[in-house]
Amino acid sequence: MSMGMVFALIGAVLSTALAGIGSAWGVGVAGQAAAGVVSEDPEQFAKVLILQLLPGTQGIYGLLVTFITLSNIGILGGTPITDTNTGLMYLFACLPIAIVGLVSAFHQGKTSVASIGIVAKKPDQFGKAMLFPAMVETYAILALLISILSITNIH
User: What percent of the chain has a predicted confidence (pLDDT) above 70?
Assistant: First the structure.
């Protein structure tokens, strides 16, 4: 296996692992808060579930970048890469969603907890509560876009 392939695989692994770690943490803390609300008011289950799930998207974004990378480097078809510089380009192209996915999922989880608190006290304010964690999502989407654009333009 070439060093180029090794570097590209490291990038693919990081995009799934780091974004996934952030999502697992974010969904976990939001789930704890959601469970507390549902124990007091089961009617709020659907609202708090949506808020809990929001930090999970970064893990999905990281996985998407991994699949695109594996397809482009010859692991899931195509011609395997051998050039070290190309492998490094894939590694660096995966880093935006890896790093931003980790950090944004962490903060989105904390923001979701706060929004779940809003729903607990004022269920009619769900729409407003949803906006706070959605704003954090914006940066994960931007990082996803940069990673995909970078990966698909490596020649």
Answer: 100
- pTM (2 d.p.): 0.94
Q: Can you tell me the distance from the alpha carbon of 131 to that of 26, in angstroms, rounded to the nearest whole number?
A: 16
Q: Determine the structural domain holding residue 135 and report its residue range.
A: 3-152
Instruction: Confirm if 100 and 136 have CB atoms less than 8 A apart.
Output: no
Those residues whose C-beta lies under 8 Å from the C-beta of residue 104, and which sit 6 or more positions away, are: 22, 58, 136, 137, 139, 140, 143
Number of domains in the chain: 1
CB–CB of 26/112 below 8 Å?
Answer: yes
Residue 59 identity = G
Quick one: CA dihedral 71, 72, 78, 79, positive or negative?
Answer: negative
Rounded to an integer, what distance in angstroms lies between the CA atom of residue 153 and that of residue 68? 12
Number of neighbouring beta carbons within 10 Å of residue 121: 9
Cα 70 to Cα 121: distance, rounded to the nearest angstrom? 46
CATH number (domain holding residue 147): 1.20.120.610
Tens digit of each residue's pLDDT (9 = 90 or more) over 17-33: 999 999 999 999 999 99
